[in-house]
């Protein structure tokens, strides 16, 4: 999903400036020469931007989530690191979103923090 923003582009036909507020797909006809905007190209650009935004927002969410889960489990960083069998530096890297846990570590985190997201249950 795209957020509306101030957009501008240069008309491919006359080189005139076209500005609008909205999404890329909302590009208006050129106010100078009336040319239709290259909607196909704009939509492709927009899809690429959306993908970048999605990746960025995923990155932002992971770290705080691990920290929040640890806090909810009532564990201090040192305790959590010891229970997980990792160095505290590694725990911070996880919580800061600098590294992603592999499957085994994700499972371990779920166990140690007693997260209720295992399909097998107890
Ligand atoms: Zn134009």
How many domains is the backbone divided into?
Answer: 2
CATH class of the largest domain: Mainly Alpha
Are any ligands bound, and if so which? zinc ion
Mind summarizing the main beta sheet? Answer: 2 strands, antiparallel
Secondary-structure element string: EEHHHH
**Per DSSP, what share of the residues sits in E-state strands of 2 or more residues?**
5-15%
Based on CA atoms alone, the radius of gyration comes out at: 23 Å
Oligomer: single chain
Per the CATH scheme, the topology name of the largest domain is 434 Repressor (Amino-terminal Domain)
- The CATH architecture classification of the largest domain is Orthogonal Bundle
Q: Count the strands?
A: 2
Query: Superfamily at the CATH H level of the largest domain?
Result: lambda repressor-like DNA-binding domains
Spatial gap, N to C terminus: 38 Å
Rounded average pLDDT: 83
- Broad shape: rod-shaped
Secondary-structure-derived class = mainly alpha
How many helical elements?
4
Low-confidence segments, given as residue ranges, are none
Order the strands across the largest sheet as they lie in space. Answer: 1-2
Question: How much helix, percentage-wise, in residues?
Answer: 40-55%
